[in-house]
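Following up on my earlier message about magnesium ion. Here are the inputs again, as you asked, copied directly from the submission form:
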Amino acid sequence: MATRKSASTPASKANVSKDELLAYYKDMLLIRRFEEKAGQLYGMGLIGGFCHLYIGQEAVVVGLEAAAKEGDKRITSYRDHGHMLACGMDPKGVMAELTGREGGYSKGKGGSMHMFSKEKHFYGGHGIVGAQVPLGAGLAFSDKYKGNDNVTFAYFGDGAANQGQVAETYNMAEIWDLPVIFVIENNQYAMGTSTQRSTKSPSYWGRGAAYGIEGEEVDGMDVLAVKEASERATAHCRAGKGPYILEVKTYRYRGHSMSDPAKYRTREEVQKMREERDPIEAVRSILLTGNHATEDDLKAIDKDIKAVVNASAEFAKESPEPALSELWTDIYADEIPQHDA
Amino acid sequence: MATELLMPALSPTMEEGTLAKWLVKEGDTVSSGDIIAEIETDKATMEFEAVDEGIMGKLLIAEGTEGVKVNTPIAILVDEGEDASNLSASGPAEEAAAVEAAAPAPAKVPATAAAPIVSKSVEPDYPAGTEMKQQTVREALRDAMSEEMRRDDSVFLMGEEVAEYQGAYKISQGMLDEFGPKRIIDTPITEHGFAGIATGAAFGGLRPIVEFMTFNFAMQAIDHLINSAAKTLYMSGGQMGAPMVFRGPNGAAARVGAQHSQCYAAWYAHIPGLKVVMPYSAADYKGLMKTAIRDPNPVIFLENEILYGKSFEVPVMDDFTIPFGKARIWREGTDVTIVSFGIGMTYALEAADKLAEEGISAEVIDLRTLRPIDYDTVIASVMKTNRCVTVEEGFPVGSIGNHISSVIMQKAFDYLDAPVITCAGKDVPMPYAANLEKLALVTTADVIQAVKDVTYR
Ligand SMILES: Cc1ncc(C[n+]2csc(CCOP(=O)(O)OP(=O)(O)O)c2C)c(N)n1
Ligand SMILES: [Mg+2]
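Thanks, got it. Here's what our run produced:
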């Protein structure tokens, strides 16, 4: 068994077509603009409760999705808006779920942290840190049981990586050769706890070795590096070689949720990341310097995306609140068995 | 001096067992630590070691004998030179097994020695005239799971020791042979993890049956039962849920102390999105397990270790299912309604028998499912008897009985001639000492006293 650090080609030299580059650029930009809008709506009181933004981490999910095929499944934590947009879910339905409206993916009954799409094989949206890891392995179990070559992407944070159920799942996933890719989105913080304060182990992906699971570390601010790693991981799983761990080094620009005291890291640290490592800027610069697109082309893309995001916000405001009768539906898949005594 | 070897108790709930095999013959020299026999309990086959030295004088019980009661003499060890030819078992324990010893039964047949508990059910779940057979709860459960696995490829069983060990309580005995390791899956001891994996598999379109070795250990996994399995249908606006069964023994076994003796009925019955089943008879175990496996929701199926070995009459039918939410009236009566479920029914029925001798006529209702609960049957009965006692083994605070009693107050207040009394386990962690354990559990005497209180006798 070999574990290794990623040896991917730097983005500027990777073998990638213009169309692919443009697609990643658009997908990442859609997430960023969508999240900025969600932040705005939250400030206006249209979105309630917890709302965890994905800004800064866009390259992770976009790069991983680049190697996905029809029937592949994905599951993640409460920081889930980006994952839903990246797998093709409708921004309107996502935004309307954030505002708790009838037009939301869960009819307004799930909220920011709990959204699903059977059609897009998106299995949530989970509010309990780490729960999505065994659930994801279970989805992979179902594919293996059925005998297809689909894989499941199970995303979780550096904080979640310390959960006992993650270790339990690694062990069973490897025993049973489950086609699951454990994607650790290491954004260096779990709420206010930096990874230095929560673990002394040098790497998260390296923990897989204890269970016999291969893995690697990837630069999560470089969408092409993530894409290459995703290709290796999916090929490994589809070939029936069992699970794979990707520790994707990334960074969240915004607070943990909308109410974050921002006392655990410096402004300079955030600023430096934004200026030097921004994943969207990186692709933008390849597009421009490689003459794949002009400033005007990119402006037009930006305009289109803004229009999509604005339309989603409009929809999310106009969609009515769920009917009061919805309180009592979807509790059981058959009838409501309980008399209300 | 001759030493009698007695049938050993090899598990906390073992009352009898099968002497599967002798590994020594008469005349052999035996030293301490030698394995002299294989004894099959309802849980497993175990080796019986000699403690004393000597010569095997006489084997009193033939191999293959079933239903050998604990403490029955099974062999006599003699000293060198001692004559063993006219030795026979002393002691009072001769009754049960020694008689059968002459004609050993084939070892494969499961022990069904005890007489079945016969239902006096007023409204059976099967057509009149259906042929019945005697089965233990254990066999009924295995048959229910196996029938459903034959019927639906997406059903599989996962848990600790379910496959090669044949089930920690032998529920899945033989299932690995029939269905293979793809569908009968041994897990590492990681309840939290495998409950999550099974729930994910249910999201992915399979129908898992998860066996918890006992429900005490499901506390490690309860987050997935509730937050993942029970709530996802609602949180996804009806898009996806978890059609699956979590099952295993629940409640007190015998002498296993506080951490292994808790009833979780009220815990799970509290949760919208779960269905909760806690049967008493083997027929109900069978019919309700089949329904549970087909149900499109997560079902908590609470079994009882002490009931596993009990025999009942089970209808012989190709496809016997029992709908959820339908209580069973075990016995009709006019003076008081006793509502119970699971092993609580043992005390409820025993009390009703004894009360009948004193001229008090009790109607006994087995709820069978705790979510949904068949309130209508309870209310109708209380309107007739005007008095009610509930019986369960779990802790008293926030019990099922508390809930039933509140529903009766709301729906039949004017019919009540006495307050409803909840008989439950005592409000203490389960003690180990035999006498204290007995005191901690609900007893038949508790039920009789409660009935006398509500009937003012
Ligand atoms: C079991 C559990 N414990 C605590 C929390 C509260 N909580 C929500 S997010 C979070 C931090 C998780 O950090 P990480 O896994 O790194 O993910 P990130 O937020 O960085 O994406 C905590 C402690 C929770 N939701 N679930
Ligand atoms: Mg983090």
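One observation from looking it over: Residues 91-113 of chain B have pLDDT under 50 and may be disordered. Hope that helps, and feel free to reply on this thread.
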